[in-house]
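Input for the complex:
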Amino acid sequence: MIEIRNLTKTFTTSADDGTQTTFDALKDVSLTVGDGDIYGIIGMSGAGKSTLVRCINMLERPTEGQVLIDGVDVGALKPKELREIRRDVTMIFQGFNLLMQRTCLANITFPLELSGMKRSDAKKKARELLETVGLPDKANAYPAQLSGGQQQRIAIARALATNPRVLLCDEATSALDPNTTHAILELIRKINRELGITVIIITHQMSVVEEVCSHVAILDEGHVVEMGEVAEVFANPKSDAAKRLVYPNAGDGHDDDAEKSAGIAAAARSGERVLRIVFNGSHSTDKPFITQMAIDTGIAANILYASTRCLGDRVFGDMLLGIPDDPVCLETVRGYFAKDADIIMEEVIKEDDHA
Amino acid sequence: MLDRMFTSEALEEALWILKNEFPMAVWETVYVTVLATLFAIVLGLPLGVLLVAGEKNGVLPLPAPVMSVLNVIINLLRSVPFLILMILVFPLTRLIVGTSVGTVASIVPLVIAAFPFVARLVESSLREVNPNIIEAAQSMGASPMQIICKVMLPESVPSLISNATIAITTILGYSAMSGIIGGGGLGQIAINYGYYRYRYLVMVIAVVLLILIVQIFQTVGTTLAVKSDKRIKKK
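Predicted:
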């Protein structure tokens, strides 16, 4: 378990005229990461994410506060003890940071060399890890000959070499294209499940957190503004920072309310009844929900508006449906949605009913 | 000058010198240069490492006064003209070699002049190493010495070879200058025959040979540097 307690990091920069300016990268950050979690720390650039992750293995010394890994205060360790704990808490980076003059195999044996493992044992271990990350044929290639995704796989193999308990990922997928990102996240998930390694992922990409994380903390200007399970935080974002992340298009030309009104108006013109369906974490991503309803009930619903998000295997968001203006129809649909407790259905009252 | 350069006597004399004195002179020039470069690297490499590693944000921070002293000494030695340095280090040369004139004796001032230069070259090579790679090594639990020996130096090998080539050609130039104090080699022939005795043809031959040696060193150095660089994609 990793406990971050009241962490504050202040950078002091001296200008040429001798004046000092201070900048608080982290302000009183507290977090607890449980064993086996995939914990996402998300925030805009400059929110302090990278500083936070570097405080976990003391690449960056916090100004105040503590980091406890399984009860051990990392900040209080002697240099030698710190170097040992760093073999337990390894890291991968946005820029991969492989040794460019070493072969892939030699990159993976590097941390084992540092720990003084016998060369032949280290090579054997490295070959196993090349299998794990799916690049068994790249042992003698140099990093410059590999693509970004392949380099990150080698970096992951290198990070796994010392059998760590925790893997820190600092924007590990930010330099990769969406397909490669997906493949790397799959690999991270596999490592988490099969080897039981706790993973902390620093990212500015919502999609990364949505895809693999079990927990999330949202960092904004050095503060943790929200944290908890991914589904909870994203289903109901409370802070402005969280809302900006969950609804990145809000406020830049993408007007949800206008779209909804337009949908309702269109339905009114064609004499349809409008229903609002709220998905509150239902396990329905694997079935075509509305189509299935049409098949099961014989009612062809018209999708007027939809804004849903999949988090893990759950759906959140809402949808406006137009159905024929008929009480029997309404009851059938109501009965259909009532079967799933995570779906709420309500009828949208037509404008002329108000009058 | 030109009309006297190609008379039959001058040609005959030059050919005689080419046959009897140049082979020895080329050998002296090469071995003085190579030995001086090796000693300069032995002193300059660790010094260059200290200049980078010892910085405030380096992997092995040293006290600021120590760093200042190192920098001042290096700048001081580098700012003394070689001709004057040769004379200034006479006592040291006598102490080490036993005499202050001759081919072997010229190695001492060459090393003294070259090692601060080598230290600066090493410094610039090591600064080219991506700091993120050093951070990655730290994150894997590497000690400062491990970072220096297993990351900084191996990662900058191509650049170190390039800079060693610059060092050896510069030292070759200095060694020719040491002909003035009886340093031997091509420089001495150029000065003795060309400058003191107006045998311009001999001087020209000596200079051409120096150019050839520089060319050879440079070509070998560049080839090695490129070959050693694994960042260049090869199929």
